[in-house]
Design a protein that fits this description.
The protein has 247 residues and is of the alpha/beta class. It contains 9 helices and 11 strands.
Length: 247
């Protein structure tokens, strides 16, 4: 497997903050002559960590297609977030990516937390990379009108019907304006379904690096997803249906 620089995160909605992370990752990959990749999860970590599944903007299928087709990420690793992943120490997590996925470096956001009990953070990741002679970069939070860009904030805007405002935070390369407007989020207290039956889609065809130890960051076609394609995601959820991401 080719050496790869990985951006780390969940990437729901693939918004402006994610764009900054992915662009930094691709820059570092070009500098190192490595591939640019993403590590994400099939289920949202909050399901096991907090016992609460947030409504999601994208399915894993949609997320991977956005990352590959609109952001030109060459490798997308979607890991299960199960009990083994939940309890994995942060160093073991990074070592697993090096061993199994040819990781040659990592990029994360400044508030990124990972590993058991969230004991890994941006500072820990940079220290690890210094020890291992790997490239690393930490990307600052992205702000719009004094508001920190986050998937949580975007979900709230969709939930309250402010879809145009939500799109401002997603940006031109993330989940499209038409798709944002067609999302149906439940009101608080309802189910966790975000996407209607016709929202599963397939794309049509159509900060500087830090050196450690000598190393150096459309159109869409509608397509239903068959049951079982993505663990824990209900392919066609009726209004109000509960969605579980713990599988």
């Amino acid at each position: 497997m080719n050496k790869t620089i990985y951006a780390l995160g969940f990437f729901d909605g693939v918004h402006v903050g994610h764009t900054a992370l992915l662009d930094r990752c691709k820059t570092l990959a070009r500098e190192e002559n490595h591939r640019a990749g993403v590590v994400t999860f099939a289920a949202h970590p909050d399901t096991l960590v907090l016992g609460n599944t947030p409504p999601l903007i994208n399915t894993p299928y949609d997320r991977e297609k956005l990352l590959r087709e609109r952001f030109s990420m060459e490798q997308v690793v979607t890991l299960p977030f199960d009990e083994q992943m939940h309890t994995m120490p942060w160093r073991d997590f990074l070592n697993m990516l090096i061993r199994d996925y040819a990781a040659a470096g990592f990029v994360c956001g400044e508030d990124f937390r990972f590993g058991y009990r969230g004991e890994g953070n941006a500072d820990a990741l940079e220290g690890f990379c210094r020890e291992q002679g790997l490239v690393s970069a930490v990307v600052n939070d992205q702000m719009i009108d004094g508001i920190r860009v986050s998937s949580t904030y975007i979900r709230r805007q969709i939930e309250t019907g402010r879809t145009s405002h939500a799109y401002l935070f997603v940006g031109t390369r993330g989940t499209g304006k038409t798709e944002i407007r067609r999302l149906r989020l439940p009101r608080r207290g309802g189910g966790q379904t975000l996407l209607r039956r016709d929202q599963y889609r397939r794309p049509t065809h159509g900060g500087g690096a830090q050196r450690h130890g000598g190393a150096v960051d459309s159109g869409l076609r509608r397509r239903p997803v068959r049951p079982g394609n993505h663990a824990g995601i209900l392919p066609f959820s009726p209004p109000g249906a509960e969605i579980s991401l713990s599988g």
